[in-house]
Amino acid sequence: MKCPFCGDPSTSVIDSRPADDNTSIRRRRVCDVCGKRFTTYEKVETIPLIIIKRDNNREQYDRSKIEKGILLACHKRPVSANTINELVDDVEKEIFSHEEREIPSSEIGELVMRKLKDIDSVAYIRFASVYREFKDVDTFMDELKKLM
What values do phi and psi take at 55, rounded to 5? Predict the structure, then answer.
């Protein structure tokens, strides 16, 4: 493991424990060269999940894309980083629990919207407006009316 501060590959593990979800290991490390500490997480590598995009292209699942979309939707909203991580974990658990190794991106988007709706209605509308590609104000208003 390379040190994120100095880039040296010699690091030592000083503490290991299960992460909050018990599906990964949290390791506390120290760089042998610069002495700085950092945390890494280990997860079990599974068969890759393939996402079927709207244009029928296929790409490998990337957790950071879901995180990025949710972070943008929750920008300047009273939603904690911990809540966002839990939301991404919940979405990830649900999509990995499917038998199929290919899943449409639309299914993931709908799942994120359902979960965001319970957390913050403004974040939900923001996410929905991008995900559903609202074309005009009327479409936007229709979604707002559904919320009320």
Answer: -85, 15
Q: What is the pLDDT of residues 57-109, one digit of tens each?
A: 999 999 999 999 999 999 999 999 999 999 999 998 888 888 888 999 989 99
β-pairing, 50-52 with 24-31? Answer: unpaired
pLDDT in tens, 64-75: 999 999 999 999
Instruction: Identify the three-state secondary structure at position 67.
Output: helix
